[in-house]
Amino acid sequence: MTNFASMKLLLVLLCLSQIAIAQTFTTKNSGRASDPRTWGGVIPSSSASITIKNGDTLVLDGNITMCELIISKGGTLTFDSIKRSTLTLHGNLVNYGSLIRKPSALYDSIVFEGVNENDFRGGGMEVMDTDKGLWVRGNGMINISGNKKTEWLNLKKAAKAADTSITLNHIPQGWQVGDELSIAPTNSPSVKDHHKQFDVRKILSISGSLVILDEPLSYDHPAVKNPFTGEYYTAEVLNLKRT
Fold it and tell me: Residue 111: how many CB atoms within 10 A of its CB?
């Protein structure tokens, strides 16, 4: 194991340990994440658990790693309008307040690292460490807006594994080279792990409704016939990139 891999593993273990529970930081004032004054003088380490307190706004302004993040009722998490930001979490993001991202030319992201679907337990509305992700609780609000863009479309026809292009049923608005697409699975339930057969690819080029992909598809995406109407339904294609 490389030193880099060892460090990442150690960070994850710290977040899951009792030591990490004691290493908590709460915002002292509204401000940027990179500003020590936001934290009362000391910027939290990447293994810390963070709470944005009532009345404070934390502005993400760069690449920031946390163990977990809690946005209290009345607290706000937002993104810098000038500097691209990536928030990496090894645990949950629990939002009782506001998560806001306004349209921008920047590409910001929230990454949940080390997610293992096999650990999923399903606690309903109860926050569980095993079900890592974004939780919205109480009167929590998410307002994430990007520039105007078609969110998703269907394939015009079935797609097959090894295809290097897809044709959409309409011409999308705002799709660009480099955008990341997710093509939903449509295989029969009789196919093993059919529900996991998402193809995630980037746009290499686009002309009208024809999209050239950066890599061949890994799975078939057949058209599915509605037994009652005789209509055929094709896979949804979601554009995952927002700016």
Answer: 12
The beta strand positions in 102-162, using DSSP E, are 109-112, 134-136, 141-144, 152-154
Can you state the percent helix, strand and coil of the chain, rounding each to 5? Answer: 10, 35, 55
The model's pTM: 0.61
**183 strand-pairing partners:** 199, 237
CATH (residue range 152-239): 2.40.30
Contact call for residues 55 and 36 (beta carbons, < 8 A): no
Domains of the chain by residue range: 3-144, 152-239
What is the residue-level pLDDT of the chain in tens, covering all 243 positions? 555 555 555 555 555 554 445 489 999 999 999 999 999 999 999 999 999 999 999 999 999 999 999 999 999 999 998 999 999 999 999 999 999 998 777 788 899 988 877 777 776 777 877 778 899 999 999 998 877 899 999 999 999 999 999 999 999 999 999 999 999 999 988 999 999 999 999 999 999 999 999 999 999 999 999 989 999 999 999 999 877
Query: CB neighbours of 209 closer than 8 A, spacing ≥ 6?
Result: 156, 167, 168, 169, 170, 171, 172
Tell me the sheet residues that pair with 64.
Answer: 87
**Number of other CB atoms surrounding residue 231 within 10 Å:** 10
Closest CA to 142 of 111, 91, 101, 88: 101
